[in-house]
Amino acid sequence: MDSMDRSILKCLSENSRQSATEISQTVHLSVAAVIERIRKLERNGIIRQYTVVADQHKIGNDVTALMEVSLEHPKYYDEFTKVMHDNPSIVACDYLTGDYDFMLKIQTKSSETLEQLHRIIKSIKGVSNTKTYFVLKEIKCGTTAMAEAQ
Amino acid sequence: MDSMDRSILKCLSENSRQSATEISQTVHLSVAAVIERIRKLERNGIIRQYTVVADQHKIGNDVTALMEVSLEHPKYYDEFTKVMHDNPSIVACDYLTGDYDFMLKIQTKSSETLEQLHRIIKSIKGVSNTKTYFVLKEIKCGTTAMAEAQ
DNA sequence: CGTGAAATTATATAAGT
DNA sequence: ACTTATATAATTTCACG
């Protein structure tokens, strides 16, 4: 993971569908070398996934919400996190220090589907307390902090 | 935006670097048609960005935090959101209902760099109040809720 | 809108430095 | 590790249903 890898990763985080040929021009390396480095970043698990950022409203998700959730006891952790992974409307979930145990980010069709999801979450074994915030506007939504390659 | 578009978008959200040839096999459409639909999704702004999910620890970001921030007055909104966009350590920022105005997600090298960033944020004009939570574990981190194409 | 074939690019492989 | 050259595969363009 040297500065060349960081430059390549930065290119991919800005546009993961650009060709190795384009990347090779910005980082000044041969195409074959760029491809080999990308493969290594994938094998090492530095690149976990290639994905897209989609416009939520345009795909029919009009409601974004954050939800704080607490568990009665850590023994419920595994079952809870499984539900997080399995539910496609839950786009992010962090285990936290503080008053609540988890912070969830939810993207869903309407306040009605949010209410359904809220009921699902409250009925997960061990969930004791929740608090929901509506997102009025997503100012920024990324996944990866890519500092500049020095 | 029909069910075929949703299927293609789901493929890309799972792996944005897979070829149109592969996608054409899963969605049962010709390669040229898949490419044309992808271009249309891009032009319509349904696809906002192609990006990667990187392992934060492996790229040297050992600290993830959520920060709640309040502004004294909405007139500071534009300047605040500009800082959000410009700072690469701030990976997400939502404008919220509730006690605080914004929820930030921060990924940074160490608690020292978090402290520096905290100081930067507190010194933005209009920022009145902040509250920081440490993320102990990222259970899930995505950007896009992709419901199944019916 | 969709397909299929030809032309253009990109990627993968291998040999040499 | 990187480069160059070659082989394989993907994408783009376009004429046509």
Automatic annotation (TrEMBL), chains A, B:
SUPFAM superfamilies with a match to the protein in the record: Dimeric alpha+beta barrel, Winged helix' DNA-binding domain
Keyword entries, A-Z: DNA-binding, Transcription, Transcription regulation
Entry keyword annotation includes Transcription: yes
Top-level taxon in the UniProt lineage: Bacteria
TM ranges: none
CDD domains xref list: HTH_ARSR
Pfam families, per the entry: AsnC_trans_reg (PF01037), HTH_24 (PF13412)
InterPro entries associated with the record: ArsR-like_HTH, AsnC-type_HTH_dom, Dimeric_a/b-barrel, Tscrpt_reg_AsnC-like, Tscrpt_reg_AsnC/Lrp_C, WH-like_DNA-bd_sf, WH_DNA-bd_sf
Record domain HTH asnC-type: where: 1-62
Gene3D superfamilies (UniProt xref): 3.30.70.920, Winged helix-like DNA-binding domain superfamily/Winged helix DNA-binding domain
Cell division among keywords: no
Stored SMART domains: HTH_ASNC
Protein name (database record): Lrp/AsnC family transcriptional regulator
